[in-house]
């Protein structure tokens, strides 16, 4: 989808929001119980986005996985260093970027 921005908004469902229709997400099944999960806006069209329970669960799983991935990246960020600039302190070598001792 090079360069195409798609925006969706997820909100808490209530039992009265479920209707029979087509799932717009992964399964694309027709005549199933679907929930309006937000507006859909692309460069060429706008509309309402509906999804079945199974696809909503998959979407929420993907969102949780992405959140975990970002959390792990934030935790690992201080440890990512190429150790390009070294300095010597008391006859030991350290990285100027992250401060870790380098054993040569």
Order of helices and strands: EEEHEEE
Helical content (DSSP H or I, runs of 4+)? 10-25%
Supply the helix-strand structural class.
alpha+beta
Overall pLDDT metric: 83
Biggest pleated-sheet summary: 3 strands, antiparallel
Strand segment count: 6
If helices are DSSP runs of H or I spanning 4 or more residues, what is the number of helices?
Answer: 1
Distance between the termini: 47 Å
Q: How many separate domains?
A: 1
Which regions are unreliable across 5 or more consecutive residues at pLDDT < 50? 1-6
Q: Could you give the order of strands across the largest sheet?
A: 1-2-3
> What fraction strand?
25-35%
Q: So what's the overall shape?
A: rod-shaped
Global Rg: 24 Å
Written overview of the protein:
By secondary structure, the chain is an alpha+beta fold. The chain has one domain. Helix content is 23%, strand content 30%. It has one helix spanning 53-76; strands at 18-21, 32-41, 46-52, 86-89, 92-95, 101-102. A three-stranded antiparallel sheet has the order 1-2-3. The protein starts with 17 loop residues before the first strand and ends with a strand. The model is unreliable at 1-6 (pLDDT under 50).
